[in-house]
Amino acid sequence: MRRLLNLILATFLVPVAHAPASAEKITLAPSSPWNVDYADESCSLRRTFDLGDKSVSLQLEQISSAPYFNLMMAGEGLRRSSSETMRIQFGPAEDAVERGFLMGTSAQSRTPFLVMFGVQMAAVPETAEIGTFPSIELSAERMAAITELTLSRGLRDEVTLQLGPMDKPMEALQACVTDLAATLGLDDIPTASMTNGRELARYLQDRFPNTAFRDEAEGIVTVRVLVDPEGKAKACQVARSVRPALFDDLVCYAIMQKAEFDPVPGADGEPTYAYLVQSVRFVQG
Protein backbone atom coordinates (compact mmCIF):
# COMPACT_ATOMS: atom_id res chain seq x y z
CA MET A 1 0.00 0.00 0.00
CA ARG A 2 1.47 3.32 -1.05
CA ARG A 3 -0.07 6.30 0.71
CA LEU A 4 2.70 8.87 0.57
CA LEU A 5 0.44 11.83 1.32
CA ASN A 6 -1.21 10.18 4.31
CA LEU A 7 2.16 9.03 5.67
CA ILE A 8 3.60 12.53 5.55
CA LEU A 9 0.57 14.05 7.25
CA ALA A 10 0.59 11.46 10.00
CA THR A 11 4.28 11.60 10.80
CA PHE A 12 6.26 14.53 9.52
CA LEU A 13 4.39 17.81 10.03
CA VAL A 14 6.94 19.92 11.93
CA PRO A 15 7.60 23.69 11.64
CA VAL A 16 9.69 25.10 8.81
CA ALA A 17 12.47 27.50 9.69
CA HIS A 18 12.26 30.85 7.89
CA ALA A 19 15.92 31.19 6.95
CA PRO A 20 16.77 34.54 5.31
CA ALA A 21 17.50 34.28 1.60
CA SER A 22 17.13 36.33 -1.53
CA ALA A 23 14.12 35.51 -3.71
CA GLU A 24 14.61 33.82 -7.06
CA LYS A 25 12.48 32.45 -9.88
CA ILE A 26 13.21 28.75 -10.23
CA THR A 27 12.05 26.67 -13.19
CA LEU A 28 12.45 22.90 -12.91
CA ALA A 29 12.29 20.46 -15.81
CA PRO A 30 10.94 16.89 -15.48
CA SER A 31 13.51 14.24 -14.63
CA SER A 32 11.10 11.28 -14.59
CA PRO A 33 8.00 10.21 -16.52
CA TRP A 34 4.54 10.58 -14.99
CA ASN A 35 3.69 7.58 -12.80
CA VAL A 36 0.14 6.58 -11.87
CA ASP A 37 -0.18 5.05 -8.40
CA TYR A 38 -3.10 2.62 -8.10
CA ALA A 39 -3.22 2.70 -4.29
CA ASP A 40 -5.87 0.82 -2.30
CA GLU A 41 -8.01 3.90 -1.56
CA SER A 42 -6.78 6.66 -3.87
CA CYS A 43 -5.20 7.38 -7.23
CA SER A 44 -2.16 9.60 -7.71
CA LEU A 45 -0.03 11.13 -10.43
CA ARG A 46 3.65 11.52 -9.50
CA ARG A 47 6.62 13.10 -11.19
CA THR A 48 10.06 14.44 -10.23
CA PHE A 49 11.54 17.74 -11.45
CA ASP A 50 15.17 18.92 -11.29
CA LEU A 51 17.37 21.96 -11.80
CA GLY A 52 21.00 21.26 -10.96
CA ASP A 53 21.10 20.21 -7.30
CA LYS A 54 17.47 21.23 -6.74
CA SER A 55 14.93 18.43 -6.95
CA VAL A 56 11.17 18.58 -6.27
CA SER A 57 8.63 15.75 -6.34
CA LEU A 58 4.99 16.40 -7.16
CA GLN A 59 1.95 14.28 -6.32
CA LEU A 60 -1.64 14.93 -7.40
CA GLU A 61 -4.07 12.65 -5.52
CA GLN A 62 -7.74 12.03 -6.34
CA ILE A 63 -10.28 9.97 -4.38
CA SER A 64 -13.39 10.29 -6.54
CA SER A 65 -14.46 11.38 -10.00
CA ALA A 66 -15.03 14.94 -8.75
CA PRO A 67 -12.34 17.24 -10.24
CA TYR A 68 -10.66 18.12 -6.94
CA PHE A 69 -7.13 17.05 -6.05
CA ASN A 70 -4.83 16.86 -3.06
CA LEU A 71 -1.43 18.30 -3.96
CA MET A 72 1.85 17.42 -2.28
CA MET A 73 5.33 18.68 -3.16
CA ALA A 74 8.61 17.85 -1.47
CA GLY A 75 12.17 18.97 -2.15
CA GLU A 76 15.05 21.27 -1.25
CA GLY A 77 13.79 23.92 -3.66
CA LEU A 78 10.85 24.70 -1.32
CA ARG A 79 11.56 27.44 1.21
CA ARG A 80 8.63 29.02 3.03
CA SER A 81 8.10 32.77 3.16
CA SER A 82 6.26 34.62 5.92
CA SER A 83 3.00 34.65 3.92
CA GLU A 84 0.04 32.63 5.19
CA THR A 85 -1.29 32.15 1.65
CA MET A 86 0.04 30.61 -1.54
CA ARG A 87 -0.53 31.67 -5.13
CA ILE A 88 -0.96 28.59 -7.30
CA GLN A 89 -1.33 28.66 -11.08
CA PHE A 90 -1.81 25.78 -13.48
CA GLY A 91 -0.64 27.79 -16.44
CA PRO A 92 -0.38 29.45 -18.67
CA ALA A 93 -4.05 28.70 -19.47
CA GLU A 94 -5.57 29.29 -16.00
CA ASP A 95 -5.42 32.29 -13.67
CA ALA A 96 -3.54 32.13 -10.39
CA VAL A 97 -5.57 31.37 -7.24
CA GLU A 98 -4.71 32.49 -3.72
CA ARG A 99 -5.28 29.87 -1.03
CA GLY A 100 -3.95 28.41 2.21
CA PHE A 101 -1.44 25.58 2.56
CA LEU A 102 0.37 23.38 5.08
CA MET A 103 4.15 23.18 5.14
CA GLY A 104 6.72 21.30 7.19
CA THR A 105 9.87 19.23 6.98
CA SER A 106 10.49 15.51 7.08
CA ALA A 107 11.50 14.45 10.59
CA GLN A 108 14.09 12.06 9.12
CA SER A 109 15.58 13.75 6.05
CA ARG A 110 14.61 17.35 6.97
CA THR A 111 13.31 17.76 3.43
CA PRO A 112 10.73 20.57 3.11
CA PHE A 113 7.27 19.63 1.85
CA LEU A 114 3.92 21.31 1.36
CA VAL A 115 0.36 20.01 1.17
CA MET A 116 -2.85 21.52 -0.21
CA PHE A 117 -6.27 19.84 -0.13
CA GLY A 118 -9.07 20.50 -2.60
CA VAL A 119 -6.95 21.95 -5.42
CA GLN A 120 -8.72 22.67 -8.71
CA MET A 121 -6.94 22.63 -12.05
CA ALA A 122 -9.54 24.94 -13.62
CA ALA A 123 -11.46 27.94 -12.41
CA VAL A 124 -14.51 27.28 -10.23
CA PRO A 125 -17.51 29.37 -11.38
CA GLU A 126 -18.05 32.39 -9.14
CA THR A 127 -21.73 31.48 -9.05
CA ALA A 128 -20.95 28.15 -7.37
CA GLU A 129 -22.44 28.00 -3.90
CA ILE A 130 -20.10 27.87 -0.92
CA GLY A 131 -20.05 24.37 0.57
CA THR A 132 -20.88 22.54 -2.66
CA PHE A 133 -18.82 20.36 -4.96
CA PRO A 134 -19.51 22.11 -8.29
CA SER A 135 -18.91 20.41 -11.61
CA ILE A 136 -15.78 21.73 -13.32
CA GLU A 137 -15.11 20.83 -16.93
CA LEU A 138 -11.66 19.27 -17.34
CA SER A 139 -11.78 18.58 -21.05
CA ALA A 140 -8.83 17.07 -22.90
CA GLU A 141 -8.34 20.39 -24.68
CA ARG A 142 -8.18 22.30 -21.42
CA MET A 143 -5.78 19.82 -19.86
CA ALA A 144 -3.53 19.91 -22.95
CA ALA A 145 -3.32 23.69 -22.52
CA ILE A 146 -1.96 23.30 -18.97
CA THR A 147 1.80 22.81 -19.29
CA GLU A 148 3.22 24.22 -16.05
CA LEU A 149 2.55 24.72 -12.35
CA THR A 150 3.77 27.85 -10.56
CA LEU A 151 3.78 28.47 -6.80
CA SER A 152 4.62 31.85 -5.31
CA ARG A 153 4.01 34.17 -2.34
CA GLY A 154 3.94 31.29 0.16
CA LEU A 155 7.48 30.35 -0.93
CA ARG A 156 10.60 32.50 -0.77
CA ASP A 157 11.39 31.54 -4.36
CA GLU A 158 8.79 31.40 -7.12
CA VAL A 159 8.87 27.77 -8.27
CA THR A 160 7.64 26.66 -11.70
CA LEU A 161 7.39 22.99 -12.66
CA GLN A 162 7.37 22.26 -16.39
CA LEU A 163 4.56 19.70 -16.37
CA GLY A 164 4.15 19.25 -20.09
CA PRO A 165 0.63 18.91 -21.56
CA MET A 166 -1.63 17.38 -18.91
CA ASP A 167 -4.21 15.69 -21.15
CA LYS A 168 -2.58 12.24 -21.33
CA PRO A 169 -1.51 12.12 -17.65
CA MET A 170 -5.01 13.14 -16.56
CA GLU A 171 -6.55 10.54 -18.85
CA ALA A 172 -4.43 7.90 -17.11
CA LEU A 173 -5.43 9.24 -13.69
CA GLN A 174 -9.12 9.14 -14.58
CA ALA A 175 -8.78 5.50 -15.66
CA CYS A 176 -7.43 4.75 -12.18
CA VAL A 177 -10.28 6.70 -10.53
CA THR A 178 -12.88 4.79 -12.57
CA ASP A 179 -11.33 1.51 -11.49
CA LEU A 180 -11.15 2.70 -7.85
CA ALA A 181 -14.84 3.68 -7.82
CA ALA A 182 -15.84 0.28 -9.18
CA THR A 183 -13.58 -1.63 -6.76
CA LEU A 184 -14.71 0.23 -3.63
CA GLY A 185 -18.27 0.86 -4.76
CA LEU A 186 -17.85 4.62 -4.37
CA ASP A 187 -20.71 5.56 -6.68
CA ASP A 188 -23.35 4.38 -4.19
CA ILE A 189 -22.06 4.13 -0.64
CA PRO A 190 -23.74 4.98 2.70
CA THR A 191 -23.16 7.95 4.97
CA ALA A 192 -20.72 7.82 7.87
CA SER A 193 -21.10 9.57 11.23
CA MET A 194 -18.31 11.09 13.34
CA THR A 195 -18.17 10.02 16.98
CA ASN A 196 -15.74 12.61 18.39
CA GLY A 197 -16.93 15.93 16.93
CA ARG A 198 -16.34 17.88 20.16
CA GLU A 199 -12.78 16.61 20.47
CA LEU A 200 -12.10 17.54 16.85
CA ALA A 201 -13.49 21.05 17.41
CA ARG A 202 -11.13 21.56 20.36
CA TYR A 203 -8.22 20.27 18.28
CA LEU A 204 -8.99 22.80 15.54
CA GLN A 205 -9.47 25.65 18.00
CA ASP A 206 -6.13 24.98 19.71
CA ARG A 207 -4.25 24.99 16.42
CA PHE A 208 -5.96 27.74 14.50
CA PRO A 209 -3.67 30.76 13.93
CA ASN A 210 -5.26 33.84 15.50
CA THR A 211 -3.48 36.02 12.94
CA ALA A 212 -5.91 34.73 10.33
CA PHE A 213 -8.62 36.80 12.02
CA ARG A 214 -6.74 40.09 11.95
CA ASP A 215 -9.02 41.28 9.12
CA GLU A 216 -12.12 39.89 10.86
CA ALA A 217 -12.10 36.93 8.51
CA GLU A 218 -14.61 34.13 8.79
CA GLY A 219 -14.49 30.80 7.07
CA ILE A 220 -16.81 27.97 6.17
CA VAL A 221 -15.20 24.74 5.03
CA THR A 222 -17.16 21.75 3.76
CA VAL A 223 -15.29 18.50 3.26
CA ARG A 224 -16.12 15.04 1.98
CA VAL A 225 -14.27 12.30 3.84
CA LEU A 226 -13.81 8.72 2.68
CA VAL A 227 -14.14 6.36 5.66
CA ASP A 228 -12.91 2.77 5.46
CA PRO A 229 -14.72 -0.31 6.86
CA GLU A 230 -12.79 0.03 10.13
CA GLY A 231 -14.05 3.59 10.71
CA LYS A 232 -10.80 5.36 9.74
CA ALA A 233 -10.60 8.51 7.59
CA LYS A 234 -8.66 7.61 4.46
CA ALA A 235 -8.99 10.69 2.26
CA CYS A 236 -10.37 14.23 2.49
CA GLN A 237 -11.72 16.43 -0.28
CA VAL A 238 -12.57 20.14 0.06
CA ALA A 239 -15.68 21.72 -1.47
CA ARG A 240 -15.86 25.32 -2.64
CA SER A 241 -15.02 27.48 0.37
CA VAL A 242 -14.44 31.10 1.28
CA ARG A 243 -11.35 32.36 -0.50
CA PRO A 244 -8.44 32.67 0.00
CA ALA A 245 -9.23 29.36 1.67
CA LEU A 246 -7.06 29.85 4.73
CA PHE A 247 -9.03 27.21 6.62
CA ASP A 248 -9.34 24.32 4.14
CA ASP A 249 -6.13 22.45 4.74
CA LEU A 250 -6.33 22.71 8.53
CA VAL A 251 -9.76 21.04 8.54
CA CYS A 252 -8.69 18.15 6.33
CA TYR A 253 -5.47 17.69 8.29
CA ALA A 254 -7.39 17.57 11.59
CA ILE A 255 -9.94 15.07 10.27
CA MET A 256 -7.23 12.81 8.87
CA GLN A 257 -5.42 12.93 12.20
CA LYS A 258 -8.15 12.90 14.82
CA ALA A 259 -11.61 12.06 13.48
CA GLU A 260 -13.23 8.79 14.60
CA PHE A 261 -16.20 7.11 12.93
CA ASP A 262 -18.54 4.23 13.59
CA PRO A 263 -18.07 1.44 11.02
CA VAL A 264 -20.96 1.51 8.54
CA PRO A 265 -22.69 -1.75 7.53
CA GLY A 266 -23.27 -2.35 3.84
CA ALA A 267 -26.18 -4.11 2.13
CA ASP A 268 -24.80 -7.48 3.24
CA GLY A 269 -24.45 -6.34 6.85
CA GLU A 270 -20.66 -6.26 6.72
CA PRO A 271 -18.72 -3.01 7.35
CA THR A 272 -18.14 -1.08 4.12
CA TYR A 273 -16.75 2.21 2.81
CA ALA A 274 -18.76 5.36 3.51
CA TYR A 275 -18.65 9.11 2.96
CA LEU A 276 -19.07 11.88 5.51
CA VAL A 277 -19.91 15.40 4.32
CA GLN A 278 -19.07 17.82 7.13
CA SER A 279 -19.09 21.62 7.37
CA VAL A 280 -16.89 23.57 9.78
CA ARG A 281 -17.36 27.28 10.49
CA PHE A 282 -14.53 29.46 11.82
CA VAL A 283 -15.57 32.74 13.45
CA GLN A 284 -13.76 35.37 15.45
CA GLY A 285 -14.67 34.79 19.07
From TrEMBL:
Q: Where in the cell is it found?
A: Membrane
Keywords in UniProt for this one? Membrane, Signal, Transmembrane, Transmembrane helix
Please give, as recorded in its UniProt entry, the membrane topology of this protein.
Single-pass membrane protein
Q: Which residues form the signal peptide?
A: 1-19
Membrane-crossing ranges are: none
The UniProt record lists the TonB C-terminal domain at 193-284
PROSITE patterns, from UniProt?
A: TONB_CTD
On whether Transmembrane helix is a keyword of this UniProt record, the answer is yes
Superkingdom classification of source: Bacteria
User: InterPro entries, alphabetically?
Assistant: TonB/TolA_C, TonB_C
- Pfam families assigned to the protein according to its UniProt record, in alphabetical order: TonB_C
Q: What is its main location?
A: membrane
Q: Which NCBIfam families match?
A: tonB_Cterm
Protein name (record): Energy transducer TonB
